[in-house]
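Entry 14. Ran structure prediction on the chain below.
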Amino acid sequence: MIAMLAGRLDQVATDSLVLDVNGVGYHVFCSARSLGRLPARGEPLRLFIETQVREDHIHLFGFLDEAERAWFRLLLSVQGVGARIAMAILGTLAPVELATAIVAQDKAAITRADGVGPKLASRILTELKDKAAALAPVAVVADAADGATADAVSALVNLGYTRGDAYGAVAEAARRLGRSARLDALIKAGLRELGR
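Output, structure tokens:
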């Protein structure tokens, strides 16, 4: 299987690109977010690749970073989510935003992606709730310089809550209280979120 390709960007379409690797053009499907962050044509480009082999085709899906590829794989594990839907979600939400939406159970954020209705969004949120915290570092809940958010998640986990539940509660608390929230305020607000 192909895991990574490095070459020069040759062509860009609405949902894919052609990467020239030593004279061989690889057709690679990419998310809209990735396509928007590409270098100029002819410039060097390295992509992490997920290869799908089917009876009638071989498709390459390309990602600018490993986090996006990991989320693609995780999304494909959800019943009803194929490559097209996974790419639409990743085109709408960055990996950090997707992790936050899942742990916070934010159905509206997921349904912003083309082809994702309320029922599928609910399934994604349910099936990936406990897995999202593992893919996203706790520090991305908020950019608190003092690490209060990470400490708040750790405190809630030590009280017996799952990492996914704790992450979601602290993410919501940090969103409401702001970046300068103190540790004790985040823990209290997180506990209130978990008590709902």
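The chain has three domains: 4-63, 66-135, 138-194. Will compare against last week's run tomorrow.
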